[in-house]
Records
---
Amino acid sequence: MSRRANLSRDAILDRAIPLFAESGYNGVSMRDIARSCGQSSASLYHHFPDKQALYLAAMKQAFADRTAQLLTLLREDGPADRRLRNLVETLCRQLTEDRTFQRLLQRELLDGDRQRLQLTAESVFSEVTRELQRLCRELAPQFDPFLLAGSIIGLVMQHFQNAGLRRFLPGYQPQHDNPVVIAEHIVALLPGGNQ
């Protein structure tokens, strides 16, 4: 691609997302992103004032479709246990089918940068978290909805964070990699999941 043909903001983000997923925020420079885009670093600054703004936009774009899908499931009419099952199964499928999504999430948690975590929480995950807490209040009003929502996400994430190791542990069976099997197991453990 010619350096003169400037890429759109979305095209830059599409190229930056896998770089951030692979190497993390600190492992990718604006120069790396520009090189991947076939652009000059200056052309990136036309769309983004700095690396942090580009990163946050990349996170929003990477998670936009997934969070929209989760919000749709959480806001459906119908029994809370069905919405829980659909949510957990969808999240398991998303993590299985999209390694970039999974890696971005893991990288951000591992990096642990307080400011980026706060920005990501506020701009990417807050709406889904609020809706998940609302579902938790419906399912199990006796539990703290914040802690229960965190436990649901934690149960799901754990299965994908240790996927490489899991295959070598005693008791492993190939069906343990199936997102539907994982989702059914998680839902069965949760309050209101067996209604």
Note: The two ends are 56 Å apart (CA to CA).
---
Amino acid sequence: MACILKLPTENSVGVISITTPERDSQIANDPALRSAIEGMKRKWLIGLHHNWHDHNFRYDPLFDFSMAGEDDLREINGTTVPLVPMDACNFVPETFKPRTTEKFWDILYVARAVQFKRIPEFFQCIRDLYDAGHKCRVLFICPVPSYDAKNQNTVFYNIREVYDTMFIGAERDLFNLLTIDYRYPFPFDLDTLAHFYRSSKLFVHTADDERRCRVAGYAWASGIPVVAMNCVAGLLPPEARKTPYFYEAKQYADFPTQIVRALRDQSSAQWDTALMERFFIETKSTDTLNSYLQKIAMDRGLPYDLENLSRKNLSIRLGRHHVDSEGPNSLNVKLIDLIEWISNNPTEAQHALQSEDPERAMNIKKSELGLLERLRSFISKF
């Protein structure tokens, strides 16, 4: 959903980030809403959070910046796009910070049972390791959605059958596959999930077309390297797209070799914890975000102070959208209702911004006024 990062003051602009699903489903289809957002730009920076990479991106000056890495967007006309090279995946809760924990599993993979995660390729990677004599302990946490026939082409429903065919006997004692069919897509609380990360030596991700992966961000925040294809490295700052943080597999046949290499390097790796915290641990990465936002504001000639940035729960809030149903990744409030409520309730909005989930804390009620009356009312306030 739209995420309120900062409210405007007399001496500083506010910042709101809108997701690409909201851009496509609401703003693109509602000229009045677009006009309302344009009317905010004297006192607000309007950001666009890209929930997926876009290699056919068309720059829209409605948005002052895009939250995406430099390789995540390809502007079709060659226009320079103002970037904040961070997104929801960069704001990992502190519970993931490294601790002195026994490394029980050699390999961890966390992925929903969907086809683009390339789970059969992950299984083949572990099969190749075992066949080569590398008896690694593996934990694969895999939330599985309820069966729906229309999703058969996108969901890997027969995951357990494939696993049981490929691994037998004692191999299943080494390779723990947890298929979880409740509380989809987030079955574990974050403290529990963080324990699994800290108890593992490295993280493997076999997707070949996923650029900014939350689960990889958790790994780097936890102090463990990631073995993956180049697309996954886009979440890292450029100076960290190398060992010991990232081991690139150029093709699927490279995964076993890179896993063995990463495990071998564990004892001698020079890990820069401070660098990882600046880009992945929420209490530090929000400072990094603040610096990027200040530069964007300066480039637009707008005043910006480094105070009052909302710092809580950004890993969820930034990528969540306003839709017609309530859920872990959505809020059943229209974007226009959120903007109107903030304009009419500045004191309450400021209080809400201190809560764990500000947008949910805002007591937003749908207006009984007509759309045009509402637009005129709150545009005048900006």
Note: The first helix runs from residue 20 to 27.
---
Amino acid sequence: MAIPVRPGTSAGHWIPAADPRAVPQARLSWPLSPVPVVMKYFDAPETPYGPGHRGVDLAAVPGQDVLAADAGVVVFAGLVAGRPVISVDHDGGLRTTYEPVEPKVAVGDQVYRGQVLGSVLAGHPGCTIAACLHWGVRRGDEYVDPLALTGEVGEFRLKPWGGGP
């Protein structure tokens, strides 16, 4: 069985939360321009409250514009655990989140794809450069890999099979 893996990883170490064949390719646009370097990849938790990384961290510059990944409605713009977060609901049950971001939008605002939501702030935990944007996506209660929704699913390799019936 072929599974998608990120370039530079070994087979079987990365499986997106959602099968990319079940998701329209390029459903979302990148929240930073130009397309950023991914500093930390999505790592789906094994249980709803288990450890993992429920989004991707993207290399940014403090003050850089954060763009809406698709048209939608701002449902949150405020602090979560002391960090400024923006959440946008989109058609199809998707919700994108962006942090740390100084908002330029307010709850209830309708936004279009590519609209400036705010600006990246320095200080994202675990970021090894001046600033990183944490970008997360949920479909309902399930966190999904944002890269799978941009069409960035990597190359295909065969997963080792241990045999069996």
Note: The radius of gyration is 16 Å.
---
Amino acid sequence: MKEEKPDPRLAAIGEKIKRLRVTKGYSSYESFAFDHGLPRVGYGRHEKGANLTMSSLLRILDIHGVGLAEFFSDLEG
């Protein structure tokens, strides 16, 4: 069975999500997820570059008050 390599664009999205969390003053993704009613395990995977649904991304961006255009403006891929 061939193992697929992770998509580097997903990793970049995960890093951006993590930066937004840290900017809000949260050192722990678990605390952030708990405080905002997000599933902790799923949120942690998103920060590590796991595939996420558009609705999950939109929910995270709404929490941060960031629009799609702003979020993707400095991502390369």
Note: The two ends are 27 Å apart (CA to CA).
